[in-house]
Specification:
It contains 15 helices and 11 strands. The protein is of the alpha+beta class. The protein has a single domain, classed as Beta-lactamase (3-Layer(aba) Sandwich). Strands 2-1-11-10-9 form a 5-stranded antiparallel sheet, sandwiched between helices. The chain has a two-stranded antiparallel ribbon with strand order 3-6. Strand 10 and strand 11 form a beta hairpin. The longest helix is centred in the last third of the chain and has 19 residues. The termini are far apart.
């Protein structure tokens, strides 16, 4: 084997893409309420005041319209799989069913939910879907500090400015930052020195799937836990905490921030765990553990969110708003069948290639691993909705474009749901706004 071929082989073997593209979130009318800067650019594009791609109808709900939908229902656990519904879902997977794990929860009739599951307990690396647990950790830490003061929690999210440091190194995902002074959009990966609020970092993590934003939030979450009501602390205090605290103590603190909320919220850590930072610098500074997830446990997370039981109703509502897709839809969410649907979405991928005769390595089509994970809440049409369901999906089908496959599966499942709930036969389900 020549030196150049060995280099190519090593490069292909370790080619990975961990995360998701720019499927930006949070309702477009929320710049003033939240301070999330890039929403102002998105609003102006939608209004025709700036050039850019406008949003599909399903992405135009206002902040007050994006809400948890089961808060008024009696709290229930995930129902047992419905055999008939499961057969229908399995049939959608076709010959590739063995490479998939999928859970579907039909909430269109909230009094009689239906659940389908194929390989629901299969464990795989969650990729960027694990960032849902970073969000859970942040909101749990805030609730612990201010259990009876939601206004204070919101104020901290909106006004606490985080300056990126070496923890954000390194990441290729670009984020959209609004230059308020010059009224222009800056789009590039986060770098040390970049500033944003906690809300903006949450948006960058869950929308653009920035690994750097996730790492910054994990750092801030550990500081929240360590300093309590003294948070936010100075950059020097933060530096001393991470440089002077014993490594074993930092490892335990990371687990307390990112894993303890999982069990506290009634979820199974053996089925849903984010174990480490999302950046190389974060992993070097704080040793973590492995990460894994199953579609069944991800579904339990999403059910608790819709019920307002993920920390509490305030936290559940804000996490759902952060997941609302309000820009370019990707992968599962890019299905044309969902154009009129409100989609709440998180995706992650991790592919890798090795030399193989006749095979060309391409994104999302690895021959060594080809993980593609999606979590989506679908409300169709966005308003007034008559169909409401949740999908948690993980696949590892080699040599196929998994982004396209997930898009196609989304179309097939949406058509199945439309056939089950035809427009002429079903009265629309309207949201009951929560205060």
């Amino acid at each position: 084997m020549t030196t150049s071929f060995r280099a190519l082989a090593r490069s292909l073997m370790w080619m990975t893409m961990l995360g998701a593209g720019a499927a930006l979130a949070y309702p477009l009318d929320s710049y003033e309420a939240t301070g999330i800067g890039r929403l102002e650019e998105a609003r102006r594009v939608q209004a025709g005041e700036m050039p850019g791609t406008r949003q599909p109808r399903g992405a135009l709900l206002g902040r007050d319209e994006v809400d948890i939908r089961l808060a008024d229902q009696a709290a229930t656990d995930l129902p047992a799989p419905d055999e008939g519904f499961t057969r229908q879902v399995r049939a959608l997977l076709g010959a590739q069913a063995a490479g998939y794990a999928i859970s579907v929860l039909d909430l269109s009739d909230p009094a009689a939910p239906r659940y389908a599951e194929v390989n629901g307990e299969t464990l795989r690396n969650p990729g960027s879907v694990g960032k849902l647990l970073v969000a859970l950790g942040i909101f749990q830490a805030l609730a612990d500090l201010y259990p009876d003061d939601e206004a204070r929690r919101f104020e901290l999210l909106k006004t606490t400015v985080v300056t990126a440091d070496e923890f954000v190194l390194s990441d290729s995902h670009t984020v959209r930052r609004w230059d308020r002074d010059n009224e222009r959009l800056i789009r590039r990966p986060l770098a040390p020195g970049d500033r944003g609020t906690l809300f903006e970092y949450l948006d960058w993590m869950l929308s653009a799937s920035s690994n750097s934003a996730a790492a910054a939030l994990m750092k801030e979450g550990m500081l929240l836990k360590a300093f309590g009501t003294r948070y936010p602390v100075s950059a020097e205090e933060a530096r001393r905490y991470f440089s002077e605290t014993p490594r074993a103590t930092l490892t335990a603190a990371l687990a307390d921030f990112i894993q303890t909320p999982v069990t506290r919220n009634g979820l199974n850590l053996e089925q849903l765990r984010q174990g480490s930072f999302f950046t190389a610098t974060g992993k070097r500074k704080v040793q973590g553990t492995s990460s894994h997830a199953s579609t069944r446990e991800l579904m339990k997370y999403m059910l608790k969110l819709e019920q307002g039981r993920l920390v509490d109703a305030f936290s559940s509502r804000e996490i759902k708003r952060l997941l609302y897709s309000t820009e370019r839809r990707i992968r599962y969410a890019s299905s044309p069948a969902l154009f009129n649907s409100a989609v709440y979405f998180k995706s992650g991928s991790w592919f890798g290639c090795a030399p193989e005769a006749g095979f060309v390595c391409r994104p999302y089509a690895g021959n060594v691993r080809n993980f593609m994970n999606s979590v989506a809440v679908i409300e169709h049409p966005a308003a007034p909705r008559r169909i409401h369901y949740v999908v948690t999906l993980m696949s590892n089908v080699l040599r196929r474009n998994s982004a396209v496959d997930h898009q196609s599966l989304a179309t097939r499942l949406q058509r199945l749901m439309e056939k089950t709930y035809p427009a002429e036969a079903a009265a629309p389900t309207t949201a009951t706004p929560n205060p």
